[in-house]
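Blinded run. Sample ID left blank on purpose so nobody reads anything into the name before looking at the predicted structure. Input follows.
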Amino acid sequence: MNYVEPIRDREKLEELKEELKKKGTRDYLMFLTGLNSGMRVSDIVRLNRDDIRNDDNSMKDYITIVEQKTNKIKKFPLCNNLREEMEKYTRNMNKGEYLFKSRKGKNKPITTTQAYRIIVNAGEKVGIKNIGTHTMRKSFGYHHYQQFKDVALLQNIFNHYSPSTTLRYIGINQDNIDLGYKNFSL
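Blinded prediction complete.
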């Protein structure tokens, strides 16, 4: 199993988004959802229209899911750019329709394996190594930490047991180790 890293460089993030847009809105929005929610790919692929829209087709204020891995409830608002994109993308979807549908079958979600292939292929095209589906979640955490410096909040979002687990997970510990080596000499 390859170890995946967060995408630290915002320009590379934008390049990857543009590459995914070339393949279509589905792939781009799947990535954008992971990048802006910190959700696991197993939960992202299971999202359907009813998770983000009310019965009257208006947008919900929050996404509320039961995480597949932990069986815990996760509730969060959509950030503005994701909300706008989702509003357009889901406007004409039917109730119960998966957001990220497979091209196989009538209304089936893509698999986590297919999501992995999509992200890895796009990453390779823009020169990003050590990438996978967890890259979305790790990149969310990395940039959230860089902006707010609140490891306790991230620990809560990720359901981690300790701050050190969260820092290691998002690559901050490695960044600090690298910096320590680069700035040290005898």
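Unblinding after everyone has recorded impressions. The chain has ten helices and two strands.
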